[in-house]
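step=predict obj=2-dehydropantoate 2-reductase n=336
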Amino acid sequence: MKYAILGAGGMGIQYGVLLQEFAHQQVDFVDTWTENVEKIREQGGAYVSQDGEGRHLVPINVYYPEEYAGDPDVWIVFVKQHQLPEFLERTAPHFREHQVVFSAMNGYGHFEKLAEYFPKHRIYGGTALIGAYVYGPGDFNFTGGAHAKAMNLCAYDEHDVEEDPIERQLFADFQAATLNPTIVRHFLGMCLAKIVFNSVLNTLCTMYQIRFGEFASHPAAPILTERLVDEAYGAAEAAGVQLLGTRESEVETIMHTASIAHPLHYPSMYQDLTRCRPTEVDYINGYIARLGREHGYACPLHEFVTQEVHLAEHAFAIHHPDIAAKAASQSVELAD
C-alpha cells in the first residue's frame, strides 16, 4: 500500500522511515513545520539515528499540505492535538473515498476530529510504545531497537479483522516495519490504557526534565506509578470502560518500559516543554480527570499533576526567555 504521513516529527518520521526501509512501501511525508520541510529538502532527506548512534541520511519526499498531489491508500497521522484541526483542514482537499486513516497520537480527542473527514469504518486507531526524539529540523533519533517496540491496532468501529483486508494489510506492513503490532478488539479501552501509561511517564518525566530510566531509578517511582494508575483505573471503571490490562499489569508495563525497554527516552511532552511549546497534558492527565468528573469520580492527583505541568511550562519560559521568544515568533508565523 502507499502511505502518506501527516506530521514529519519524531513519530511520523519513524513510522514512515521504517515502512519505507523495512516494509518496502512507498511513503510520502506532509508537514507544516517550515524549518523542518526546508531542511529536509536542503539536505536531501532526514538524518536518522538509533539510540544516538549510526546517524545517516534517509532520502524522503516531504510536502506542504497545499502542494501535495499524491493519492495514498493510507494516511498516518502524528500531529500535536492542538495543531490537528488546522492540519486536517489544510490537507482535506486531498482526502478520497477509497482512503483510510490510521493514528496513534498521544492523548484523546483526535479520532472525533478524524471522523469529521473519514467514515468511521475507514478509521483505525493505535497506541505505540515506541520512542523518538527530534534533535532539530530534519534530524531525528529513534530510541529502543526493534525488540523494544510495541504497538496496538484496532478499527475505530471495532469491526472484525477477518472481514477487513485493509486492517490485515496494515498489520502485515507494520509487522514488516519492525513495529511489533498486536490487533485488539476494544477501541476505547486500548486508547485509555495508553493515556494511563503517558499520564505517569510523560508527565512526571516532563515536570522534572528527566529520562524514563532516571525516573525508574528513584525509590519512590513504583508508588507514584501505582497511585496515578489506581486513580486513572477508578475513572475508567466509573465510565464503564474496560482497559486492556489490570492495575498491576499496567504498573508493571510502565516500570519495565522505563527501566528496561526505553531508559534513555525523553517523552515528547518534555520536548515541547523545553521548546516552550504547549504540552498535551490536557489531553492526557486532564482527560483522565475530566472523564472522572463526568462520571462522579474525583481524580485529585491527575487534576493536580495537570496544573503542575502547566506551572512547569510557565517556569521554563521564565528561566529561558530566549527560547520563549523564539517559540512566540514561530507561533505568529504559523498564525499568519
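step=describe
The mean pLDDT is 95.
step=end
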